[in-house]
Amino acid sequence: LIGELFDLNQKITVFGNRLELKFASKSKNSSISIAQGFVTASLIVCVGAMGIVGSLQSGLANDHSTLFAKALIDGIVCIVLASTLGIGVALSGFVIILYEGSLTLFASVLVPLLTDSVINDLTTVGSLLIIALSLNLLKVTDIKVMNFAPAVFMPIIFSLFM
Questions:
Q1: Any idea of the CA torsion for 116, 122, 123, 127, to the nearest 10 degrees?
Q2: Which of 55, 121, 130, 153 could share a disulfide with 103, CB 3.0–4.6 Å?
Q3: What is the pTM of this model?
Q4: What's the half-sphere exposure (Cβ side, CA atoms, 13 Å) at 94?
Q5: What is the 3-state secondary structure (H, E, C) of 85-132?
């Protein structure tokens, strides 16, 4: 409901269209949507449990090993995505740095909220978003996945009331 209220999918599409106009002369393939690459890469990289757990380990224990492993996996995935979805994948790096950096910086504040059940719920919601994104990439559906992105944080909010 939050994503639909703010129409996040439309805002990302408008942002992607502005980027497409800026990079239109540099793009070799005009059929590639920068917005689609941006949204796809951002969601695939940000909704997994490794990002949350790795950022918390980095912020609390100064242990960056999980984030390094995640960076290697994400790098390979993004290279493959960029071959088909173009420059929008590279531009998603800013969102990823902001997301994981915020989690790392605010780790001490978030730790009491992130119980095992909350992390499991975050992972489940993230997995469902990845399934929806996959169905969109296969052109089976046309789900506005970005409108569902705030759902990733709902288990944290629900845990405050439980």
A1: 160
A2: 55
A3: 0.76
A4: 4
A5: HCCHHHHCHHHHHHHHHHHHHCHHHHHHHCCHHHHHHHHHHHHHHHHH
